[in-house]
Design a protein that fits this description.
- The protein is mainly α.
- Among the domains are: about 250 residues, Na+/H+ antiporter like fold (Up-down Bundle); about 160 residues, NAD(P)-binding Rossmann-like Domain (Rossmann fold, 3-Layer(aba) Sandwich), CATH 3.40.50.
- A 6-stranded parallel beta sheet has the order 3-2-1-4-5-6, with helices on both faces.
- Helix 8 crosses helix 15 and helix 14 runs antiparallel to helix 15.
- The chain starts with 9 loop residues before the first helix and ends in a 12-residue tail after the last helix.
Length: about 600
């Protein structure tokens, strides 16, 4: 009788035991299957885990980059050690890096580089120097030996170009002033760290000399010159041919970006610098936004592999012993680095918001920082525990800076009253925004041709968007602002700035494309007038439902126009003769342009 009360709970205990046993069996079977997995299955498993972690991040409203790094920690040696094909993941991540930096370069025309080169050089060199100086004394205060303190202090000075560019791209700020300056000084930092990575082995060897350094600089100059000349004399002249096919343009852009990155890597330069220069070389092409839009999905997929691999390669050693020093150094990077950069930019006359947003982009350390300290360990200059220390600092600062960059606008609104110290009384800025147009015309064939003529006669400030390279080339010769791109591509539409648009007209006959245009314009500016084309009554009603302000129906408008002519001219033979001559002249002009009136659906073959 003493055991009777326990009987009702026995089934529950049995169920829990059964679930526990099944769970252990599933884990065992999963591990056995994993041991027999091929490369495809391994990558599939990594992506599945990344999706699960990303879902948690979305529910918690956290940045996905942090989720990808956590995925790396889960699948790496720190937890389950599921990665067998590290070399393959490294290759995939390098592809992502190349595409990311290439698309960033597409937003940096040579004019922008000339405009912001000075501030990029001063802030890049200045921030590295000051961070290394103050970081060294903090390391000495923590009891780190002088040689190791030098390595750790310099490691704290470098920021991750890849992480920052991904955050800025996700935020949609690639065209802003702080983004242009950030790209510039991050490139300067990358050049400094590459020189250090080359110089340390060179000067650690017995027969080192400055001749190798000189040869390195000459090689870099020649490589840049080669890319610039190839772009100017080959790519720019072939741009119309390249733009005639979406697939061919995409394939060429991928080959160009990755090829130039590989070329730079072969000569000992960083992959990032080569990919960025490849993008800059194409930044003046009419198809630059189309290229960027086509590469964006590919970039987002491959760059996930970089963050997973970054998380998987983090080894922390004795975390409890390293945590106090890691927290202090992380605080210095998260708050000290932005203050250093804000001070430099304030002295150069930039406003406090730009200084703050730019400062947040240096609030983390780079993957190059880990490589630099690892190199010191290899040569016996640094004890292994300091590599673990820098790794922990890297994780803390990458996570912290992600929030600082993504929420910089909110942070500025809170801190603005206290940031006057970092702004001169005569502060001024020259923003890199492209000229905004109050009128945007999609499609310049047939109906679009009439709008174009009207805008030109009225002196209107307008932009033409078209996907025909011949039309774009002809309009550019006439000095008309153009953008080459496919309006049915959401990524391309998102690259256009509709914030100042007052009137947007689409003469594209595809109803789905016009719905996308309407949504994109209304999302950017709700009070903008949107006029689209439709050939079917049902499509016209759907466009009105989606928010279009007016729908052009050519056949109905043509009939109404002809009826109004009858009322206006009646049977005046002379007036009809004048109208006839004008119409014949217009038709001959359109025939020369290759225009043709579309056949009714009932007589199409």
């Amino acid at each position: 009788m003493t055991h009777a009360p326990a009987l009702p709970h026995a089934p529950a205990r049995s169920a829990r035991l059964l679930l526990l046993t099944a769970g252990r069996a599933a884990c065992t079977i999963g591990m056995l299957l994993f041991l027999r997995m091929d490369l495809f299955a391994e990558i599939s498993l990594l992506i599945a885990i990344a999706v699960a972690v990303a879902a948690v991040m979305r529910v918690l409203r956290q940045p996905l980059i942090i989720g990808h790094i956590i995925t790396g920690l889960i699948v790496g040696p720190a937890v389950f050690n599921l990665i067998d094909s590290e070399e393959t993941l490294a290759l995939l991540s390098e592809i992502g890096i190349a595409i990311l930096l290439f698309t960033v370069g597409l937003h940096l025309s040579p004019d922008i580089i000339r405009k912001f080169g000075r501030v990029s050089l001063i802030t890049g060199v200045g921030q590295v120097a000051f961070t290394s100086f103050f970081g060294y004394f903090i390391c000495i205060m923590l009891g780190i030996p002088p040689a190791a303190a030098v390595y750790v202090a310099i490691a704290l000075a470098f920021s991750s170009t890849i992480i920052i560019m991904k955050l800025i791209a996700d935020k949609g700020d690639l065209e802003t002033l702080y983004a242009k300056i950030s790209v510039g000084f991050l490139l300067v930092q990358d050049l400094i760290v590459v020189l250090l990575l080359l110089a340390i082995p060179m000067f650690s060897a017995a027969g080192s000399s400055l001749s190798s350094f000189g040869k390195f600089m000459v090689t870099g100059t020649l490589l840049i010159l080669f890319v610039v000349l190839a772009s100017r004399f080959f790519v720019s002249k072939a741009s119309r041919f390249l733009s005639q096919s979406q697939e061919f343009l995409f394939l060429f852009a991928a080959a160009w970006g990755m090829g130039v990155a590989a070329l730079f890597s072969m000569f000992g330069f960083s992959l990032e610098s080569g990919a960025l220069i490849a993008g800059v070389a194409l930044a003046s092409l009419p198809a630059r936004h189309e290229v960027s839009a086509r590469l964006t999905p590919l970039r987002d997929f491959f760059i996930v592999m970089f963050f997973i691999l970054l998380g998987a390669q983090m080894h922390f050693g004795d975390v409890a012993a390293l945590l106090p020093a890691a927290l202090l150094l992380s605080a210095f990077v998260l708050f000290g680095n932005p203050i250093i950069l804000m001070t430099l930019m304030g002295l150069m006359g930039y406003r406090k918001k730009t200084s703050l947003q730019t400062g947040f982009t240096v609030a983390q350390i780079s993957e190059f920082s880990l490589i630099l300290v690892a190199l010191g360990v290899t040569f016996g200059h640094v004890a292994p525990e300091y590599l673990s220390l820098v790794t922990l600092v890297g994780l803390l600062t990458i996570c912290g800076s992600t929030y600082l960059v993504l929420y910089s606008d909110r942070i500025y609104r809170f801190l603005s009253p206290y940031l006057g110290l970092f702004e001169r009384s005569d502060a001024h800025e020259s923003h890199p925004h492209a000229k905004r147009h109050p009128v945007v015309l999609f499609g310049c064939n047939r109906i679009g041709h009439d709008f174009l003529a009207t805008f030109e006669e009225s002196g209107e400030n307008f932009l033409v968007v078209d996907y025909d390279p011949d039309i774009i080339a002809e309009l550019e010769k006439r000095g008309i602002a153009t953008e080459f791109g496919d309006a049915s591509d959401l990524d391309f539409l998102s690259s256009l700035d509709f914030s100042q648009a007052q009137l947007v007209i689409s003469t594209i006959p595809d109803p789905e494309t016009n719905i996308l245009i309407t949504r994109a314009v209304k999302a950017a500016r709700e009070d903008a007038v949107v006029m689209v084309l439709a050939h079917r009554v049902q499509d016209a009603l759907e466009h009105y439902k989606q928010g279009a302000d007016y729908v052009i129906m050519p056949h109905f408008l043509g009939g109404r126009y002809a009826a109004e002519l009858v009322i206006k001219l009646r049977n005046d033979k002379h007036k009809y003769g004048t109208l006839r001559e004008r119409h014949i002249k217009d038709l001959l002009s359109r025939l020369a342009l290759g225009h043709e009136h579309p056949f009714p659906a009932s007589v199409r073959l």
